[in-house]
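Proteins fold reproducibly. Look at a concrete instance:
___
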Amino acid sequence: FAVEVVRQLNAAGTAARLHVCGIRQLPAGLPDFVVDHGFLNKGIPKEARRFDQLFEQSHLLLVPTRAEAFGLVFCEASAFGLPSVTTDVGGIPTVVREGDNGKTFPLAAPAADYAAWITALMADRAAYDALAMRSFETYERRLNWTVAARDILATLRG
């Protein structure tokens, strides 16, 4: 699905690459715009740096997942000011809030909907910059371990 989104972006004139990490072996025959980084183990410093570099060098995090309990990767993306584009399933809407740090689509949304939204965002530099800044602010305000620990302690203390 993500490959189809990026295929449509490129076909519409929005130059895009899809960087994939976390999969040990991608299927053969993928388009040239797919960049395979393999499985990155964040417990290995060199691989953790590569993971961070992917966030630093990207414009969006595209994760059109079909099921997700929470999605820590969306918090990580927000830490880099990287807006997330994903699916409105499971716990994702508690992390990715439209206009706050990204966009969620219904599970049945076609790739064309994702591509159209991304194209419009990338065509408006001010809108993209504002969303990227809000993504980072969202990380600082609610998507980091310090805030999570504070909230848990407050709940436990009643």
